C-alpha cells in the first residue's frame, strides 16, 4: 500500500498536470501546518478555463484509479485465499511488486525545466541519508503489508475493510504528534467515530464467516489489521517529516521517488521473507490445488499486483494535483464501498453490527472531509488576501 502508503490540511492546486512551460510544483504533505508553496509560474489568464477543466479531469481520473485499484486488489486478495491460496508472503509481495509501473508516471510527468528547478529548490540532502531513510521506510512498509495479508486471511473482507478505515483516525493522531496537525473538534469527532466503528467490529462475536477460521485467528486478524492501519498512518507521517526536515522539497518527482524506492525495498524484503519462511516451496502445490485452475492462479496474482499499482498511480496523481491529505481521504472513502462488493461476490454476512459500523465509519469520513473543506476555504481566502495586498 503503500501504499500508500503516503497522505497539510488545505488542498494545494498549482498548475494542473505539468503543462507546457511550467516547472515542477511544490505540494503540501498531510498534516502540515504550513501553506503549500508554488514554484510554478502563473499560467496566462486566457488559458485558465482549459487548465481548470484539465485539473478536474485529472482529479476524477486519479480518484477512479485509486478507488478501482484498491477495491479490485482487496477483492482479488480475498479470492486468492478463498480458492486455496495460503501464502502470506506472496500476498505481501504483490502489494508492492508492480512498482515499475510508476516509472511510466515518472517519465510522463518529468520536469519540463530541470535547470530552472535546480536554481529554486532547496539544497539536496545527502544520498546516504536518503538511502537509509528509503531502506527503513521500505522495511516498515513490508512489515505493514504482511500484517494486512494476515488480516485479510483471517477476517471476512467486509470486516477487514471497515477496520482499515480506522487509518484516517490514526493519521490524525500521528499528524498531531509528528506534523503539528491541529486537532479540531471535527477531527476529534472523526477519530472518536472511526474508533467506535472499529470497536464494534472487535466485539462482534458473529464476525467469523467461516468455520475454518478459529476465534483466536479472528482476534489475531483484527489486531493485526488494526496494527497495520496504525502503521500505515505512521508511515505517512514519517514520510512527511522526511520531506520537510530532510529532503526539504515536496515536488511531484520527490514524492514519486519516495513511492518507487520504498516499494523496491519492500519488495526485496518480501522476497527474502518468502524464501526464508519456506513458503516458496508451497507455491507450486498451491497452483495445482487452486480451485479455478493454474491459469486463474497466475492471473489472480498478476492482476492483484497490477491493481495495487493502479491504486498507487491514483495516490501519487492525487498528491500531485490536489494534496496528500485528499489522497488519503479518498483512499479511506473506498473502504466502506468494499463490503458491498464482498456481499455480492463472496456472500459475506452483513449483519446489523457491520451496517452500523459502516454508517459510523462513513459519518467519521464526512466529518474529516468537511474539516478538509473548511481548511481549504480558509487557505483560498488567505491566498486571495495576500494576492490583493501584494
TrEMBL record:
Q: Where in the cell is it found?
A: Membrane
Q: Does the keyword Translocase apply?
A: no
- For region Disordered, the annotated ranges are 1-23
**Membrane topology, record value:** Multi-pass membrane protein
**Source organism's superkingdom?**
Eukaryota
Q: Which GO terms describe its molecular function?
A: purine nucleobase transmembrane transporter activity; purine nucleoside transmembrane transporter activity
Q: Which UniProt keywords apply?
A: Membrane, Transmembrane, Transmembrane helix, Transport
Q: Which InterPro entries match?
A: PUP_plant (IPR030182)
- Which terms in the GO cellular component ontology are assigned? membrane
Q: Which family does it belong to?
A: Belongs to the purine permeases (TC 2.A.7.14) family.
Protein name as catalogued: Probable purine permease
Amino acid at each position: 500500500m503503500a501504499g500508500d502508503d503516503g497522505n497539510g490540511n488545505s488542498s494545494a492546486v498549482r498548475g494542473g498536470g505539468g503543462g507546457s512551460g511550467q516547472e515542477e510544483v511544490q505540494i503540501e504533505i498531510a498534516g502540515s501546518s504550513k501553506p503549500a508553496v508554488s514554484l510554478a509560474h502563473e499560467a496566462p489568464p486566457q488559458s485558465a478555463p482549459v487548465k481548470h477543466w484539465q485539473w478536474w479531469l485529472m482529479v476524477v481520473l486519479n480518484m477512479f484509479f485509486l478507488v478501482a485499484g484498491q477495491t479490485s486488489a482487496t477483492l482479488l486478495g480475498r479470492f486468492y485465499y478463498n480458492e486455496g491460496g495460503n501464502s502470506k508472503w506472496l500476498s505481501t509481495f504483490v502489494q508492492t511488486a508492480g512498482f515499475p509501473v510508476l516509472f511510466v508516471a515518472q517519465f510522463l510527468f518529468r520536469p519540463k525545466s530541470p535547470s530552472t528547478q535546480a536554481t529554486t529548490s532547496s539544497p539536496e540532502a545527502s544520498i546516504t541519508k536518503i538511502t537509509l531513510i528509503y531502506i527503513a521506510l521500505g522495511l516498515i512498509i513490508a512489515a505493514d503489508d504482511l500484517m494486512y495479508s494476515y488480516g485479510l486471511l483471517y477476517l471476512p473482507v467486509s470486516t477487514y475493510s471497515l477496520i482499515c478505515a480506522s487509518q484516517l483516525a490514526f493519521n490524525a493522531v500521528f499528524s498531531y504528534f509528528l506534523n503539528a496537525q491541529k486537532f479540531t473538534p471535527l477531527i476529534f469527532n472523526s477519530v472518536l467515530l472511526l474508533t467506535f466503528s472499529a470497536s464494534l467490529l472487535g466485539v462482534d462475536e458473529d464476525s467469523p464467516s467461516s468455520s475454518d477460521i478459529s476465534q483466536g485467528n479472528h482476534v489475531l486478524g483484527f489486531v493485526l489489521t488494526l496494527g497495520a492501519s496504525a502503521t500505515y498512518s505512521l508511515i505517512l507521517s514519517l514520510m512527511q517529516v522526511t520531506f520537510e526536515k530532510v529532503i526539504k522539497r515536496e515536488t511531484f518527482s520527490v514524492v514519486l521517488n519516495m513511492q518507487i524506492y520504498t516499494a523496491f525495498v519492500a519488495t526485496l524484503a518480501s522476497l527474502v521473507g518468502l524464501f526464508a519462511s519456506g513458503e516458496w516451496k508451497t507455491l507450486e502445490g498451491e497452483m495445482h490445488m487452486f480451485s479455478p485452475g493454474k491459469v486463474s492462479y497466475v492471473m489472480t496474482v498478476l492482476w492483484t499486483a497490477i491493481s495495487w499499482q493502479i491504486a498507487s498511480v491514483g495516490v501519487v496523481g492525487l498528491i500531485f494535483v490536489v494534496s496528500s491529505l485528499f489522497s488519503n481521504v479518498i483512499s479511506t472513502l473506498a473502504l466502506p464501498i468494499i463490503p458491498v462488493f464482498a456481499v455480492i461476490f463472496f456472500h459475506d454476512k452483513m449483519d446489523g453490527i457491520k451496517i452500523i459500523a459502516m454508517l459510523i465509519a462513513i459519518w467519521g469520513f464526512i466529518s474529516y472531509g468537511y474539516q478538509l473543506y473548511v481548511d481549504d476555504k480558509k487557505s483560498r481566502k488567505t491566498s486571495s488576501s495576500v494576492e490583493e495586498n501584494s
